[in-house]
Write the structure tokens for this entry.
Amino acid sequence: MNQTRMLGASLLVYLPHLVEEALTRMYDDPLMVFALGPLATLSPRQAGYLVFQAMLLVTVATAYLVSLGGRWRTGVLLVLGLALVGEAHHLVRAAVTLHYNSGLATALPMPIVGYFILRACTRP
């Protein structure tokens, strides 16, 4: 699987996941509340601005690394693959609690795509 297809596959599994989490109030999940806790002391405008700037920085840095090609591009794909495999946390939480958690339905294919990305990136 070439790198363009890997990125496309990532988008195909991530976009529905993003929508499911948004529609099922993932932002109220205790894990998210804890992770975003430091932003709670800021005004909504400050928090939104800070998150926007942080995400823009990550986007530009990622685009730069991908544009360098070679090991840098592979490194970005490895991080992406690990993030997708990490979405298995939805399955683990469901197995432990025996309850649905926000994002569970669309998380199912994400670790599989992540595995294939990792496998493709670690082949000689």
